[in-house]
Every structure is written in C-alpha cells, then in structure tokens.
Design a protein that fits this description.
With 344 residues, this protein is an alpha/beta fold. It contains eleven helices and 13 strands. It has helices spanning 92-96, 104-112, 134-138, 141-150, 168-177, 191-197, 204-216, 236-248, 265-276, 281-287, 296-312, and strands at residues 26-29, 39-43, 49-51, 62-64, 67-68, 97-101, 122-124, 155-159, 180-185, 221-228, 254-258, 324-326, 341-343. It has a seven-stranded mixed β-sheet with strand order 3-4-7-8-9-10-11. A four-stranded mixed β-sheet has the order 1-2-6-5. Strands 12-13 form a two-stranded antiparallel ribbon. Helix 8 links the parallel strand 10 (221-228) and strand 11 (254-258). Helix 4 runs parallel beside helix 5 (168-177). The chain is globular, with a radius of gyration of 20 Å. 41% of the residues are buried.
Length: 344
C-alpha cells in the first residue's frame, strides 16, 4: 500500500507530498454487524484543509475530508479513482478499506487559527460522505463542526447519511454563528434501483426524513438530486415522483445532476450495468462516448424538466444548500417562540 502517495486531490500525482507517514497508520477491524468486512486504516493526517484545484468545476475552494473510501458503496461514486493512489482496489476496496483521519478535529482547529487562513467557506461531503457508517464509531464530525463554529467559519455539508441528525444541536448553534449550508443527496425514490446502486446508504425516504427534521429545527436543507441515472431514473414519471417527494419533505431547493462516469467509477459502474441491465450497455457506450459526462443536450433536458417540476411543487431557489443563519435567541424574559430563519 503506497501511503506515501496519498493526497486529497483528485489530481494526485506520485510526486505530491504525503499527508502522513506510513509509520502513523494503524489498521483495525471490528466484529460487529455494521462493520463486518470493513477494514479501517487510522492515520494522523498532516493537513486537513484541502484546496480544490483551480481547474475544478466545484463552486468552492476548500474542503475537509475526514475519511477516504466509503461504505455507502454507490456503484457510480466518482471518488473511486482516489483509492488507486494507495494501490487499493477502486471497486470492493473503495467500499471496504476506509482511511480514517483520527486527528481531523484537532488539526482543523489548529489550521483555522493560522494567520494565513482567511475564513473561506469549507465544503464537506464533496469527496466521500463524512456521515458514512464509520462516523458512528469515530465521531469526528462533532469536533469539526465545533472548530468551525468557534471561528464563525462558513461551511456546508452534503450527505446521504441520516447520522447527521445526531449533530443537530451542534448544527443549530453553528447556524447562529455563521453561514451553514446543508444538502442531502437523493437522486431517485425507486426502492429497487436504490437497493442495487446504493446498497450501503439509508433508503431515499429516510434521507428525506433528514430534510424534514432539519427544517423543523429551523435549518433549511436543499436536495442534490444526484445522480439522475440515464434510462433508469430519468423517465418523466420518475422525475415527477422524486421532485414531489423532495417537495413534501420541505426542501428549500432541488438541484439535478446527471450521472457522470470518471475513470475508476466508469469501469465499476459499467460492470454493474452489465450484470443488472445488460440491454443498456450499448446505449451507455454511445451516450458517454465523448468522456465522463453525458451530452449537454441531455443534461439540459433533465435540468429543464426538474426545474419545471420544482416550480410546480413550490420548491424555492434551484441551488443546493442555501446558507442560512438562525436568528439569535430572544432575551430570557421574552416568550418562547419557534426559531426563525433569514436568508444571508
């Protein structure tokens, strides 16, 4: 395993400096049902704030990723390629060999205190899910949220995990101090498709319960409708059912994103497609003949349909995770009232 080549960039190269040394790695397994078959590699990272490459399409410059690899096991996950930098398999290895940066909270607190840090927005859950199953044991996110809150540093979280509700009180406090954007990923509501394509995730309806619970606490939550999977979740009736469910959960926004197939993810997804939907293989080869992304005409069609449905069902702005700040509590002598939100 090539720990010396580990970086958090999708554009990692063999010459990149290591984020930790091989002597800092502890490998563990746990004989409990939720972790059976999963190996954890505990490391002490040297850096936790990662700058996003300038050529990236992402709308943010900095990320925090306390984990690498993901037990959600989504067959399409674009982050699979990063496991190859460790000489790990990008298929089952990505799903079951999880790198855990056990010092992430303390390291983040130290880096946020640096004079060089300018308080830029920090995005989480953009590579692998920070609320995957491992978080239930390692509990890194509470310390990370507290570190960001102490500095009133704006941040956002994207997740497919229901475990985020464990940290609801921390998120509520954070939203009083700074801009906090929360988005939940729900690409479709078809239960059969979910069981095969996202086998390690909570069911779509449980994720929508997260949206509802956050809203009830005064934290607006957007939905990233991702991925929309060509020929499997893109029929008009399917799109309508998904947007209707998202609206019913009280989402502040819905943003569609069509499946993209980068190297690493492409091979694993196409193998899955050949087993489960062999009649679609040639159609995918044609649709993705030009690279990782579906043609612009297809992406625009899906976006137009979803935005139209969002307007029909009364969902707000079509950008994900609108940052919200919860109003300061009233004086103790004032009557108790529900928390109100205001757009920032």
């Amino acid at each position: 395993m090539r720990w010396e080549n580990l970086t958090d960039s999708d554009h990692a190269r063999a010459a990149d400096p290591a984020l930790f040394g091989a002597d800092a790695v502890t490998t563990r397994t746990f004989d409990t049902p939720e972790f059976r078959g999963i190996t954890f590699h505990e490391v002490r990272a040297r850096s936790i704030l990662n700058r996003v490459p300038g050529a990236s399409r992402m709308p943010f410059e900095w990320t925090v990723n306390p984990y690498r690899g993901c037990s959600h096991a989504c067959v399409y996950c674009f982050a699979r390629k990063t496991h190859s930098y460790l000489d790990l398999d990008t298929g089952l290895g990505f799903d079951s060999q999880i790198v855990v940066k056990v010092n992430a909270p303390e390291l983040l607190r130290r880096q946020l205190a640096s004079r060089r840090w300018q308080g830029e927005h920090v995005a989480m859950g953009t590579n692998v899910d920070c609320y995957q199953r491992a978080e239930g044991r390692y509990r890194l996110m509470p310390g990370i949220i507290e570190a960001l809150t102490e500095r009133a540093n704006p941040f956002s979280i994207l997740t497919k995990g229901t475990l985020i509700l464990r940290d609801l009180d921390l998120l509520t406090r954070a939203a009083r101090a700074t801009d906090v954007g929360i988005s939940v990923s729900v690409g479709f509501t078809d239960p059969e498709l979910w069981r095969t394509v996202e086998p390690g995730t909570p069911a779509p309806e449980r994720r929508l319960e997260v949206v509802r619970a956050l809203g009830e606490r005064g934290i607006g939550c957007g939905v990233l409708m991702a991925p929309v999977i060509p020929f499997l979740s893109d029929e008009p009736a399917q799109l309508r059912a998904t947007v209707r469910a998202i609206a019913a959960a009280g989402a502040t926004s819905v943003t569609p994103l069509v499946l993209h197939l980068r190297p690493g993810a492409r091979e694993w997804f196409m193998a899955w497609l050949g087993r489960h939907h062999p009649h679609l293989v040639r159609r995918y080869e044609r649709l993705y003949a030009e690279g990782a992304y579906a043609p612009k005409w297809y992406q625009r069609r899906i976006t137009r349909q979803v935005h139209g449905l969002a307007r029909e069902y009364g969902i707000g702005p079509t950008h994900a995770g609108t940052p919200r700040r919860i109003a300061e509590p009233r004086a103790e002598s004032a009557p108790s009232e529900p928390v109100q939100l205001s757009l920032i």
